[in-house]
Amino acid sequence: MSFGDLRLGSSIKPKPEFFTSAQAQAIIQAAPEPYKTLFAVASGTGARAGEILALTVSDLNFEKRTISISKSADDNTREIRQPKTDNSEATLPVPSALA
User: What gap in Å lies between CA 73 and CA 83, rounded to an integer?
Assistant: First the structure.
């Protein structure tokens, strides 16, 4: 084998894996607090971990049943920071099961 025989990358793309609804519910039910709530919010809204960790009470609107995502916790330092882009901000509906 020579250097010219090497091939980088692959045309085969791995299929993304997701938890089924039943698996997500089993994880949520088995988790102790505060993880139970964190996992339920993630499952119900699709919000990222850093976005969930940065939530405050003022981000929750119980009357309109929404969660405002406007900041994120840094992965390494856990410092709360503003989103990198305007597209990172969102108002998410709260599903009935999560409410």
Answer: 9
Confidence of residue 88 (pLDDT cuts 50, 70, 90): confident
Structure tokens at 28: 């949520």
99 located within any domain: no
Q: What total number of domains does the chain contain? A: 1
Q: What is the pTM of this model?
A: 0.77
**Buried/exposed code over 14-48 (b: 16+ C-beta within 10 A; e: otherwise):** eeeeeeeeeebeebbeeeeeeeeebbbbbbbbebe
Kind and range of the H or E run holding 80 = strand 80-81
